[in-house]
Amino acid sequence: MDRRRTYISFVMATKTSGASPDKRRKYGDAFKAEAQRLAGESRSTQAAAWQLGISPKLLYRWRSSWPR
């Protein structure tokens, strides 16, 4: 579990946020892949999204567009 938290902390540190509130945050492929893996291992996609600090709707959208 400690390794996962370290990786998530690293990936979350790499996400960028815009300088102004009207800009959207951008997430890299590494963050999206880790979010997908975490959601797949978790019983609840909502719980995984909450743990990552993102909207569950965003995670569901990534899951539907992610190549299988």
List the helices and strands and how they pair.
Elements: H1 2-14, H2 29-41, H3 45-52, H4 56-65
Helix pairs in contact: 2-3, 3-4
Pfam families: HTH_Tnp_1
GO molecular function: DNA binding; transposase activity
Protein name: Transposase
Report what the structure shows.
With 68 residues, the chain is mainly alpha-helical. It has one domain (1-10, 31-68). The protein is 65% helix and 0% strand. The chain contains four helices and no strands. The chain has helices spanning 2-14, 29-41, 45-52, 56-65. α2 packs across α3 and α3 crosses α4. It starts with a helix and ends with a helix.
Outline:
The protein is 65% helix and 0% strand.
Q: Work out the count of structural domains.
A: 1
How many distinct beta strands?
A: 0
Mean pLDDT: 77
Treating each run of at least 4 consecutive H or I residues as one helix, how many helices?
A: 4
Radius of gyration, taken over Cα atoms and rounded to an integer in Å:
12 Å
Helix/strand-derived category reads mainly alpha
Q: Please report the distance between the alpha carbons of the first and last residues.
A: 26 Å
Q: Secondary-structure element sequence?
A: HHHH
Low-confidence stretches: none
Major beta sheet summary: none
Provide the β-strand percentage band: under 5%
Helix content: 55-70%
What's the shape? globular
InterPro entries: Homeodomain-like_sf, Transposase_8
GO biological process, one term: DNA transposition
Protein name: Transposase
GO molecular function: DNA binding; transposase activity
